[in-house]
Every structure is written in C-alpha cells, then in structure tokens.
Specification:
Layout lengths: L2 H18 L3 H12 L4 H7 L9 H37 L18 H15 L3 E2 L5 E3 H4 L19 E3 L2 E3 L5 H9 L4 E10 L11 E11 L4 H16 L5 E8 L2 E10 L16 E10 L1 H6 L8 E8 H9 L12 H4 L5
Helix pairs in contact: 1-4, 2-4, 5-10
Bound molecules: phenylalanine.
Amino acid sequence: MGMKERIGEIHEAMVKELLGATSTQNLEDIRVRLLGKKGELTALLRGMGQLSPDERPKAGQMINEARAKLTEMLEKKAEEIKAREQAEALERETIDVTQPAQLPSLGGAHPINMVMDELIECFTGMGFEVLEGPEVELDHYNFELMNIPKNHPARDAQDTFYVDDNIVLRTHTSPMQARAMLTRKPPIRVICPGRVYRADEVDATHSPVFHQMEGLVIDKDVNMADLRGTLNAFAEKLYGKGITTRFRPSFFPFTEPSTEVDLTCSSCHGKGCRICKGTGWIEVLGGGMVNPKVLEMCGIDSSVYSGFAFGIGLERITMLRYGISDMRLLYEGDVRFLSQFRK
Ligand code: PHE
C-alpha cells in the first residue's frame, strides 16, 4: 500500500472515531492512538527512512499536513465535548437556593444550669461575687474549718466519699466559706455554686452527685435580719411578688444560730397543694449566722465582724420550677427530656 493510501486510511479512521467520541477521555484515547508518540501517524513518519530520497519530502509533507488537519479536527471536537460536558455538569449540580435549609440541631442548657444561671444573676445583682472551688477537697476545709468535729456522723464513710484519710469529695459547698475568708478581707460577699457529693443511694429524691450554691456575707454589724432580707429579695426575684421566706430553727456546726429556710410554695402561693403537701411552704435551703468559732479559725476577728451564710439546693429548686418529679431525669441525659428545656 502506498504512503498516500495509508495516510488516507488513518485519516478516515480518525474522522470516524472522532464522530463517535462522546467524552474528553474518549478523545484523549484517540489522540494517543493515532497522533501520539507511538501512534500510527508517527510510525509512518519513522518508516520514511525506507523510502527513496526523492520520495521522502513529498511523503513528509503529506504526513505533516495530515497531522495538522487531524489535530485541528481533534481540537474542535474537544471544544465541543467540553462545552457539552460543562453544560451537563451545571445541570446536574444545580442547587435550588429556595429550598428550606436543614438546620443543624443545637444543644441547649441543662435545666440545672439554667436555674444556676438565674440564681447567679440574682445574687450578682445584689453585689455578690461568684467564687468556684475544688470538688476534691481537703478534710480540713470540708469538715475541720466548718467546725464539724471528728466524731460527727457526717464524717462517716456511709455519708462521705473519702479519697484518702485527708481528702474527700466535698459534701457541701460550705468549705468555700473558709476558702473565701482565708483569701480575702471583709467586707466579703460571695456565692459559690457547684457540685457536691454524698454516699447516697440513687432514688427519686437522692443522688450521690448534686448541686448547691453557697452564699457568704462578712462585714461589720451583719445580722439575721440581713440574711432574711437577702433571701426574701432572692425569693421574690426568682418566683415573683408575694413569695417570701419562713425561718425554722435548725442546727449546723458552722452557723449559730442556724435555720432551715422555706419559701412560699410558688404553685399554690401558700394556700396548700399537692406539691407543698398542703403546708404552703417548701424547704429549699439552710442558713444562719457564721459561727464565731469558724470566723476565728478562718482569721476573722469575731469581735469586729459577723456574717451570715446559706446553702441552696439547686436540684430542689429546679424540680419545683419545672414540675420534675424524679431527680434521676436530671442526670440520665435523655434528649427527649432535655430538649424540652431548649429555649
Ligand atoms: N452546708 C449545709 C448543707 O449542706 C447548708 C448550709 C450552708 C447551712 C450554709 C448553713 C449555712 O446542708
């Protein structure tokens, strides 16, 4: 077969293939096969050595012409295919910006934290400073400085988690009273929210981990009426007008006198209902005048200064506020329960 015919054949084959090409990849395969380094046209060019010298220039010219023509055709086809592929991609990847977006599901504050934040806002509004301290506490702060003697039942391993002989998981936030007095000078006004631990069995009203908020005020001439006034303001701010406090005598080693404090039942406003068991009152905190012994142990001159302290149980307030009847719900992390508090 002559050179001209062979070129004609290659040309024809390529035109046919180009017509059938559907993708950029297709085209590339064709290009490599016919025009590439090992392609058929290149092979022809190489085979020119076998031609006679006077045939060569003519053959070379024909091959080069064919190459130029085919390359041009290939490029044209490539543009066509590229344009089509782009149009298809645009079509395929269209986004309907008018579709409603799928919002990410956000978490929310835990009800205990919501109540804690509310209390913090209430007390900081009255000039209290927020102070946080260790949950793993020295016996010295948790018991000794709180005037809880060695033989006190609260010290029993039945009630307290011991890390070792001298270290406990704090059983109340009251050790923060000592930490506050030892690190600042009067006047002192602090609240100390946080977790506390007691070796209780879990049931509807008990948990080995729960939350308290300690309050402490030390100044000259602080008396029980100041405690009452502060807690009345807190009660009204939190539950609204008409909610007040009732003090009942009690005992804590670190306060003298000590009191158990009830709030007017916020669901019946004192008339008596199921929630307050008909009494009109709900017990939510303990308090009293800081025992002079505690003041002295913490480096405060009890002949000059006096103070009051209180400890609020956050679980109780949270359960009352949201009508939660089982404390376990607060710790189980069930989203069906928790998502109800999302704002
Ligand atoms: N620490 C006491 C308790 O856990 C509460 C309390 C705090 C009482 C401050 C008096 C003063 O029960």
